[in-house]
Amino acid sequence: MPVIAWLTLRLQQQPETSSLDFFIEHGFNTFRIPFAMERMSPPATGLGSPFDSAYLGDLKTTVNYITGKGGYAVIDPHNYMRYNGAVITDATAYVSYLFFSLDGVITNNPTVSSHGGRS
């Protein structure tokens, strides 16, 4: 995956498509999309629960827009191995849950990569 330019998005809300277009038009082709695991899997239901449909929908919309424009998306859980303020001690469960779950929902697209998941 050639990286001409790299941009990190903060997905607290879905970015405006005009913002994405600006960077694509200026040669950016790879977008890192960090997300908070607490938004994807709210603490009220826990890390092993289904993803929050609204937050996942925004993430999918952003990823599909980027890849539809010929760009690459890197999905990045940005929690430093923490969830709801506690250190995640079961790395195998973390990787299995998060990346295999995301792979089935988002990364069945060859222009999407997840840190630690399949690319």
Task: List its salient traits.
single chain, 119 residues, alpha/beta, four-stranded parallel β-sheet, two-stranded antiparallel ribbon, 37% helix, 18% strand, elongated, disordered N terminus
Could you give a short description of this structure?
The protein has helices at residues 17-25, 37-40, 53-68, 91-105; strands at 6-8, 30-35, 72-77, 82-83, 86-87, 112-114. With 119 residues, the protein is an alpha/beta fold. It has one domain.
How would you describe what is shown here?
- With 119 residues, the chain is α/β, with parallel strands linked by helices.
- 37% of the residues lie in helices and 18% in strands.
- It is built from four helices and six strands; from the N terminus they run E-H-E-H-H-E-E-E-H-E.
- The protein has helices at 17-25, 37-40, 53-68, 91-105, and strands spanning 6-8, 30-35, 72-77, 82-83, 86-87, 112-114.
- The strands form two sheets. It has a four-stranded parallel β-sheet with strand order 1-2-3-6. Strands 4-5 form a two-stranded antiparallel ribbon.
- The model is unreliable at 1-5 (pLDDT under 50).
Question: In terms of topology, how is this protein built?
Answer:
Elements: E1 6-8, H1 17-25, E2 30-35, H2 37-40, H3 53-68, E3 72-77, E4 82-83, E5 86-87, H4 91-105, E6 112-114
Mean pLDDT: 77
- End-to-end distance, in Å? 10 Å
Radius of gyration: 14 Å
Number of strands: 6
Helicity level: 25-40%
> What gross morphology would you assign?
elongated
- String of helices and strands: EHEHHEEEHE
What fraction of the residues are assigned to beta strands by DSSP?
15-25%
- Major sheet strand order: 1-2-3-6
Structural class: alpha/beta
The major beta sheet can be summarized as: 4 strands, parallel
Number of helices: 4
Q: Would you identify the regions where 5 or more consecutive residues have pLDDT less than 50? A: 1-5
